[in-house]
Design goal:
Layout lengths: L1 E7 L2 H12 L3 E4 L2 E5 L2 H14 L6 E7 L22
Antiparallel strand pairs: 1-3, 1-4, 2-3
Helix pairs in contact: 1-2
């Protein structure tokens, strides 16, 4: 599945969440990630995220689609990070 993940964390947890999310998805902007991920890996990511979150103040939002082709994306201005996978 294709997901867009957005988080809002307390200052002390931002760096840890960034590091965690970069293991699973492509970092495209501050606190925003996207990419293809299996259901199992997404569940793993969300469980690990919940362990570090303060559920009273932090938030994690995940938008999902079957594939990227069902999502229109428009970038205005400089793209922070390209997701091309060149070897």
């Amino acid at each position: 599945m294709y997901v867009i993940l957005v988080y809002d964390m307390g200052e002390k947890r931002v760096a840890k969440m960034l590091k965690l999310c970069r293991k699973y998805l492509n970092w495209i902007q501050n606190s925003v990630f996207e990419g293809e991920i299996s259901n199992v890996r997404l569940k793993e990511l969300t469980l690990r995220a919940e362990e570090m979150m303060d559920l009273e103040t932090d938030s994690l939002i995940i938008f999902s689609s079957r594939t990227e082709k069902f999502l229109d994306k428009q970038i205005i201005g400089k793209e922070r990070s390209s997701i091309d996978n060149f070897l």
